Amino acid sequence: MYELIKGANVGLAALSESVDSVIASLDWSSPTGEGDADVSVLLLDANGKVRSDADFYFYNNPVAADGSVQLLGKAPTGGGNKDRISFDLTAVPVDVDRIVLAASRYDGAHFGELDDLQLTLADGSGENLLRFAIEDAGPVSAFIFGELYRRGGEWKLRAVGQGYEAGLAGLATDFGVDIEDDAAAEESADGAAHDEEADATAPVPAPATDRAPEATLEAIPAPRQPDEDAGSRKPAARPRTAKKKITLPKVVKKSLAENESWKEAKLFPVSALKSDRDREMRATSVLLSVMAQIPEFGRRLTAAFGAPAGRMETFTEVSLPHGDSPRRPDGVIRVERAGKLWTALVETKTNGNSLKAEQVQAYMDIAARRGYEAVITLSNDVALEGSPLVDVRIDKRRKHKVALWHLSWAEVAHQAQMLIRHEGVGNMAHAWLLQELLHYLQHDNSGCHGFQNMGVAWVPVRNGIDDETLCQGDPRAMEVVESWERLIRQVCLRLGGELGQKVLPVQRSRRGTDPGARRTHLADQLCLEGRLQAELRIEGTPGVLAITADLRTGKLRTSIEIPAPEQGYPLTWAKRLVRRLAEAPADLHIETLVEGEAGGPRGTLERLRPEPADLLPKNGTQITGFRLSLFKGMGSGRGNAETGFIRSVDDSVHRFYATVVAHLDRPAPRRTVSAERAAG
Fold this sequence. Notes:
Blueprint: E1 2-4, E2 9-11, E3 21-29, E4 38-44, E5 56-57, E6 69-76, E7 80-88, E8 98-104, E9 115-122, E10 128-134, E11 142-151, E12 154-164, H1 167-174, H2 182-191, H3 197-201, H4 276-293, H5 295-302, E13 311-315, E14 331-337, E15 340-348, H6 357-370, E16 374-379, E17 403-408, H7 409-423, H8 428-442, H9 458-466, H10 475-499, E18 503-506, H11 515-529, E19 531-538, E20 544-550, E21 555-563, H12 570-580, E22 589-594, E23 602-604, H13 605-608, E24 623-633, H14 645-659, H15 674-679
Parallel strand pairs: 1-10, 15-16, 16-17
Antiparallel strand pairs: 2-12, 3-7, 3-9, 4-5, 4-8, 6-7, 8-11, 9-10, 11-12, 13-14, 14-15, 18-19, 19-20, 20-21, 21-24, 22-23, 22-24
């Protein structure tokens, strides 16, 4: 992988033949596991300014109408998060000269608090092409990682590495974006700070092999100068960033049925599904058909795989020659743009069936021979970083590269729910069609339930913990840890789809720890302590939601720690907290966290409701926060039945969020820009 230094640049065509579509990843880790940042992308013209506010893409404006830019969202890594952006470089308008890749923090946080900052770029096959590691971010709340730019008909990437003390508002203003808050706009335009302006105007020399003549190109424009007669002009009308989107109402209309025995007609019936083969064929056909009919949905599922934005057609029952007998993949996806075709073969499994390595290997070989770009596997399983679901052999002698990607049915359902409930699609018919797809995927008979089995090692490990015979290094403990991680990722997908908010697992590990080493450590902890633990960060909540499954006691604990308010009196804090929890379960445990001690007063909500003062330490010790916990018996089975472990974890997290976390005070809102208001 090509390593870039600050100020250096490299042509993408020199690194790969598949750079029409690329995926940029902005990565970071946090010592506490709680560090977060939001990615933003700006399309600039030859003058270094956005053509309109519509050229600014961020968390409330994540997709370009022409498919040139799509923010794919965050994904957990070994020690932190990576935020991915898909670019279809063939779709970028000709008057766009540069694309800036940036990120911002909020609530007083800065990038100097994060570790392992880096920008990586992957080609259309998913192979990482280059990396830019950043060591000197400093105390800035907005940061430009790099920029893609055109030179001589070719796309290049420059490693920028420059921060803005003025945050997202200052960065956006300097590139010509209209700020929603007028006071913030004035402050940002007059005082946007560029920590490393000298470095930007005189970049660090590029490597000798790529010392480009355009090295004097400014990476960051100078702050805009105030216009002398600006006061005499009317402000320009702020453009809309997106067409109005359609979402379905969350409250279901009253049914006209006479009684519950009347079943509403469904576009995709599931009653006739009798075998696994029937389920696989029906699920594949239903999904691929909806992807082709709803551009937003099809693009959302394929952009992360390097597919361009273009006309999509999907196929089933395709026969392809392979040796003595033809192979029939479950489906084929083809996307056409500018006369070029992108093709992916699809292999589907439902009802918990595992992918077969020899089957996937055959499709990889067929795709390589025929010049196809990808093989996509789709099953109930959830892929983990550093732990492939199937091992395939890649023939490196072949010039054409084929990417192997995986989707879980839970992720498909999550994306459908995000569109129809929260982000919207182009018209009501598309919203209804996605609703029908979601109903199909969530039906018990479809076989598309997501991860639903803790595996064959689950019962032996639980028995080994009960009778204290499970030893460190037992491979079965590692299997359980991997299943636990898959379950937590699926819980995040389901909860995030319901809330319309980012929900991500927090992975606390030492800097540079690889996923395998981290899981080995967790497996050893399971053997010693008999507990599985995880943490979820939910956007808009005051703390991290923790889950502990104690296999010795058979109890699930969900909890959250919230900081003490910065102002007011402790008794006021306690009374307000109890009032906010008026609808919470009576058996909710509340513990006062105090400075320098193991723990403070504690009790159940039922006991504390009449006497909130019982939460105050008797010796007047300073309160640092409160811990709220619920306990529940966990299922004993390894599957997803009513008495199963997976169902009990899912139910516990949803119950704790709905009855406790949703009623807590929200953190301070972020500052937004005019693009957010226009999109609404």
